[in-house]
Design brief:
Number of strands: 0
Oligomer: single chain
Radius of gyration: 31 Å
Order of helices and strands: HHHHH
Strand content: under 5%
Shape: flat
Number of helices: 5
Largest sheet: none
């Protein structure tokens, strides 16, 4: 056992003459840090905000909407035009499904077919009937 230091602080344990090697070595190049940093920068709120502002600045639809909104405000229908504009934005920004991709809502699928893992009434009824109390 090592004696304590005279100033009251504990001494660090002596390091081995040879540092133990880890069973594996990870090279910095294998970590793909540059790609990770770029990915994180692409997600930064400042960059996303900048992209959104730039997209609005060059969008003809947005300019047309602002012009119609100003006319509607002068005519006294600003709130109505705002609601119409919000609906329009939802319709325009709704994504399109790829060929063969199914909707989560079976109503929109061909033949009203449910997706894998969704609960239907027959499965729910069967589960309730076979459940032991």
């Amino acid at each position: 056992m090592e004696p304590a230091a005279t100033d009251g602080s504990a001494r660090p344990p002596k390091a081995n003459a040879k540092a133990k090697k880890k069973p594996y070595h990870i090279k910095k190049a294998d970590l793909h840090l540059d790609e990770y940093r770029k990915e994180q920068q692409d997600r930064s709120p400042a960059l996303l905000f900048k992209r959104a502002v730039n997209g609005l600045r060059v969008s003809r639809q947005f300019h047309l909407y602002v012009a119609i909104q100003l006319v509607a405000i002068m005519a006294g229908y600003g709130q109505v035009m705002l609601v119409i504009g919000l609906f329009w934005a939802m319709v325009v920004n709704t994504g399109k499904r790829k060929e063969g991709e199914m909707s989560a809502y079976s109503l929109f699928n061909e033949g009203v077919e449910a997706i894998e893992g969704s609960t239907d009434m027959q499965a729910l009824e069967q589960e309730l009937r076979t459940r032991s109390l």
